[in-house]
Design goal:
The structure holds two protein chains of two kinds. By secondary structure, chain A is an alpha+beta fold. In chain A, 43% of the residues lie in helices and 21% in strands. Chain A has seven helices and eleven strands. Chain A has a six-stranded mixed beta sheet. In chain A, helix 2 runs antiparallel to helix 3. The radius of gyration of chain A is 27 Å and the shape is elongated. In chain B, strands 1-2 form a two-stranded antiparallel sheet. The chains are: A alpha+beta, B mainly alpha.
Chain lengths: 307, 690
């Protein structure tokens, strides 16, 4: 085969590759049509901001990487051995300018990203309460094997694998766990996750701006029932929420005994709603079980604050 | 009495589930076949004397490749099983139980990192580093066999559960506490995890110490640190990191073991234990580990780019600084693996910034390769194609990595399939492609014949296409809110098509693996025509190519003197007269490493099953063997100069005769020719029988 032939053939390969990638992208786009992509379709303030941050930083980095990759592939093609037109110089490429760029360019990109990242990290810190005119709603989240238990201290209500919150109301999820390994609590539509573990109370502040049902789940491996440890987050209007609370207050009671029953490991637990006038006490007893063993238990003041 | 003798071991430990039965039978049959073959060929003494007890780093390197390669297939099979389950789970429940699924992903991660990537990297370091620095053997040849055999003991330990126990750890590859503790994982699977990593981890530490000593103390005359080839530099950085962090792994796992065995409370939820401490400690080792396997691979790419561009590395000192920078900073970023633990904005920011800093030296290395290609004369051989594949895959891994270093974004992506896709981009692109590039590049040196280029190209393309088909859907699934490690998901979420596409990608990757195996077999069939008679098939630049392929036991009949970087290139430009041969001192083979590792294995087995006497006896046994070795002064022998000369001349004659037999205008066989040739060969076998 002549050299000329080989070269024209390689162009066909490149075209084939481009066509294949295009087809692949089209297939993936078609497959994702009509499906929930929570990270690109956020329903809450925190998720909005995280989405914006994701898009901006990806854009910056892709632009930079595209330039670097362009030079790698362009040079590989241009200085191929079969290309008699390109010049060869074994000592080339050592210019001070290139060396300077090699260090300066990534440093510059790094500075830009850091300057975006630092304020955002402070702003979007999960512990930070969200400013709003509406009064904050507190929900205690207890990870068990293998279900999520939600306690509403101010509403005297408790739920399992289901949580309802009013729209446009800042919610403070207080995450902890009982007789369970470390867990990750994640509602992708509303914002990022945080770990839930025994002995500690990890506050996660979220707010929803659109009503709807959003899937949430466990993200950290925790044993057999891991995949079934899911819950639905219903974001409703304040009125609908109040009605729901009133109904829930009529439901069966989650008292200390019922709580002990919940603690038994179970998988794929169906959602349930309870009335629970004593949930504050249940929560405190549960925390004390672990706090007794450790001297630097820090979150007691906060739990007392609600009494 | 029974408890004393057998501990927790009883009949229920024997294989009784389909996967353990299948595993036991297939592993058992494979073992029987190998044993049968060796007995039939009467090769046991040869195997023991020439290979198993060897202290030659070249042979140990090859053994690392063989065991690591087998483990790659084992880990790949795990991957396909995971893919299949997730593709099926969208409709129905798939074919795996949650427990089994979790065991498989745990094993997949462990095997790929500890027993594949580490092994193959150690294989290259063993084989290539002494040749690159002009050394005849290592600073401590014995420590090297010991390290290898401890690794083998770990490999056997991680596969033991098929035969005895029936379950493996199900707590993820790093066995996060408290899930891995006595409260939530009672089974022996977790103990097998502990001891396979513990034993092989100690082997890694010993190996790393040895290579640091070797690189620092055994270089040829004139080879200053800043004249070392970049692969040696990558290996040095990697080994320094290994020595810094592997003791941390050993201690962390030891504390976990103590928790499980003696009921202490280091990492438990009760009794004042602190599981967060485990997460910190394990990632203080775990993150540097990523770079321990990646830096040698950066070194390989530097060699490949420079050789196939026919140019010296553009910014040598910058590349060295970049590698040292990556190695140093990577010790300071572990917390980015758990921004979601809730340490607060300040702590998270600090670690986020540190992580982004790693991007700088890494990008500098990329620029270095661009500068190296500039005005070169580039040959598109398979090693170079692996580099081109690496560039795009690793760039994606890098972008997503920096993205995950932004704490608020990480809150959304952590533990999602996006994260899984990210680290596979870096591990496959950065580590595996580097290893494959190195394999194609150094194969002629190691085996004496180069690999088939044609089938090699097919393999590269299968891997690259397979990678994108397999992992792009995972990025999308992560954005859709799919967490990692799901054995089930609700059909209504619409994830199934993406998992199916991903499975297809997995199959394409498997085709790539099959092509690589075919590539090796096809090259073996054409080994005479592909034989490298020059010792320098690629027109390369470093000292390893100044030796014949394959190198003699003493590597260099005459230790070269180095005056510049790219020492061999320099020698080719201005050949010097050869000084006379001298006596060569070589280390003697020893089986001590095997004995110590056997004791280490038995100790681990004793601890797994609570057979205390076995553990204690094994520890004493290992100590006795070590002490005996200390008093053994007769560990070296001399090859007289006359013998060296004779060996060199025989070798030269052999090479001339191979050269004479080579067809001048042969072509690498393609797949069709491979198929027909194998078929003919199989038919001839049948015919001979009948």
């Amino acid at each position: 085969m002549s050299k000329q032939n080989k070269e024209s053939k390689s162009i066909w390969y490149i075209l084939l590759g481009l066509a294949g990638s295009g087809l692949f992208i089209i297939i993936l786009t078609l497959l994702s049509r009509g499906k929930a992509i929570p990270l690109l379709d956020p329903k809450g303030f925190i998720a909005d901001e995280q989405y914006r941050l994701l898009v901006v930083s990806v854009a910056i980095m892709v632009a930079f990487a595209a330039i670097v990759l362009f030079f790698i592939y362009f040079f590989a093609w241009k200085y191929r051995e079969t290309n008699e037109k390109s010049s060869h110089n074994p000592h080339a490429g050592r210019s001070r300018w290139l060396l300077f760029t090699a260090w300066a360019a990534p440093i510059l990109v790094c500075i830009v990203l850091v300057s975006i990242m630092l304020p955002a990290t402070q702003e979007l810190e999960p512990q930070k309460p969200i400013e709003s005119d509406t009064k904050q709603l507190t929900i205690r989240v207890i990870a068990m094997r293998w279900k999520w238990v939600f306690l509403y201290p101010d509403q005297d209500v408790a739920t399992v694998n289901y949580v309802q919150i009013p729209v446009d109301t800042p919610v403070r999820f207080e995450l902890t766990a009982d007789e369970a390994p470390m867990n990750g609590f994640w509602i992708p539509h509303l914002g990022g996750m945080l770990y839930a573990m025994t002995e500690h109370v990890n506050p996660l502040n979220l707010i929803a701006h659109t009503t709807g049902d959003y899937e949430g789940g466990a993200s950290e491996i925790n044993g057999h029932g891991f995949a079934g440890m899911r819950f639905t987050t219903r974001v409703s209007s304040q009125e609908a929420f109040d009605t729901w609370v009133k109904e829930a207050q009529q439901a069966d009671e989650l008292d200390a005994t019922a709580y002990q029953q919940l603690l038994q490991p179970s998988e794929d637990t169906p959602p349930a709603v309870y009335s629970s006038p004593t949930n504050q006490k249940i929560f405190d007893t549960m925390l004390k079980k672990y706090a007794g063993s450790h001297d630097h238990y820090t979150n007691t003041e906060h739990t007392e604050h609600h009494e | 009495m029974r408890d004393f003798l057998l501990g927790k071991l009883d009949a229920s430990a024997l294989p009784h589930e389909w996967h353990t039965i299948a595993g036991s039978i297939s592993l058992g049959l494979a073992l029987l076949a190998v044993v049968g073959f060796i007995t039939y060929k009467k090769r046991w003494t040869w195997l023991w004397k020439e290979w198993l007890t060897t202290v030659d780093p070249k042979k140990i390197g090859i053994m690392y490749f063989i065991v690591g390669g087998l483990m790659l297939l084992r880990g790949g099979l795990d991957a396909i099983m995971l893919w299949l389950q997730q593709a099926l789970a969208g409709s129905g429940h798939g074919y795996l139980s949650a427990q089994h699924f979790q065991e498989i992903f745990t094993a997949h991660g462990n095997i790929m990192v500890f027993f594949v990537a580490m092994a193959l990297i150690f294989g290259f370091i063993n084989y290539i580093v002494p040749l690159q620095i002009g050394a005849r053997d290592l600073a401590s040849p014995f420590l090297n066999t010991l390290g290898f055999w401890l690794y083998v003991a770990g490999v056997i330990m991680i596969n033991m559960f098929f035969f005895v126990g029936g379950e493996y750890a199900a707590a993820g590859w790093l066995a996060v506490a408290p899930l891995s503790g006595p409260e939530f994982s009672q089974g022996v699977g977790m103990d097998y995890w502990i001891w396979s990593l513990q034993i092989s981890g100690i082997g890694t530490t010993l190996g790393a110490i040895n290579f640091i000593m070797t690189i620092l103390r055994m270089r040829a005359k004139g080879m200053t640190l800043l004249k070392m080839p970049l692969f040696t530099w990558g290996s040095l950085c990697s080994m320094v990191m290994a020595v810094s962090v592997f003791p941390l792994l050993t201690m962390t796992i030891f504390l976990l073991f103590v928790d499980r065995y003696f009921g202490t409370h280091f990492f438990t939820t009760s009794g004042g234990g602190n599981p967060m401490m485990y997460t910190n400690l394990i990632w203080m080792w775990g993150h540097p580990e990523v770079y321990i396997i990646m830096l040698p691979s950066f070194g390989i790419f530097s060699e490949v780019v420079s050789t196939f561009s026919r140019k010296p590395v553009a910014f040598y000192k910058t590349a060295v600084a970049g590698m040292i920078g990556v190695a140093t900073i990577s010790l300071l970023v572990w917390l980015h693996h758990f921004f979601t633990m809730g340490a607060g904005a300040d702590v998270n920011s600090a670690f986020g910034v540190a992580t982004m800093l790693i991007g700088i030296p890494t990008t500098v290395l990329l620029f270095n390769w661009i500068g190296t290609m500039y005005k070169g004369r580039i040959r598109f051989t398979t090693p170079f194609l692996w580099f081109l594949g690496f560039a795009i895959v690793f760039a994606i891994g890098g972008i997503t990595g920096i993205l995950l270093a932004i704490p608020p974004v990480d809150f959304q992506l952590h533990n999602s399939l996006f994260l899984v896709a990210h680290f596979h981009s870096t591990a496959i692109g950065g580590v595996l492609f580097g290893i494959f590039a190195g394999l194609n590049y150094w194969f002629p040196k190691i085996a004496g014949f180069r690999l088939n280029e044609r089938i090699g190209r097919y393999a590269v393309w299968s891997w690259i296409v397979g990678f994108f088909v397999a992992f792009t859907p995972l990025y999308i699934l992560g954005l859709m809110g799919a967490t990692r490690r799901l054995d089930q998901y609700d059909a209504s979420r619409g994830w199934q098509p993406f998992f199916v596409v991903s499975l297809i990608g997995g199959v394409i990757i498997m085709i790539g693996v099959a092509l690589q195996l075919i590539q090796i077999i096809a090259s073996f069939m054409q080994r005479r025509d592909l034989a490298d008679t020059t010792g320098d098939p690629w027109d390369s630049r470093n000292l390893e190519w100044s030796t014949p392929s394959t190198p003699p036991i003493y590597n260099f009949a005459i230790i070269p003197e180095v005056t510049s970087r790219d020492a061999f290139w320099e020698m080719k430009q201005s050949p010097q007269p050869k000084p006379p041969y001298q006596d060569i001192h070589m280390p003697k083979n020893t089986a001590t490493g095997i004995y110590i590792s056997a004791f280490a294995f038995l100790m681990g087995f004793g601890f797994v099953w609570h057979i205390n006497w076995l553990a204690v006896v094994s520890i004493i046994g290992a100590i006795v063997v070590v002490v005996m070795r200390m008093f053994d002064e007769n560990t070296e022998y001399t090859i007289p100069a006359a013998v060296v000369e004779e060996m060199e001349e025989t070798r030269a004659r052999e090479i001339t005769s191979i050269k004479a037999q080579q067809k001048p205008d042969h072509e690498d066989m393609g797949l069709v020719e491979f198929a027909t040739t194998t078929l003919k060969w199989a038919l001839s076998l049948v015919r001979r029988k009948t």
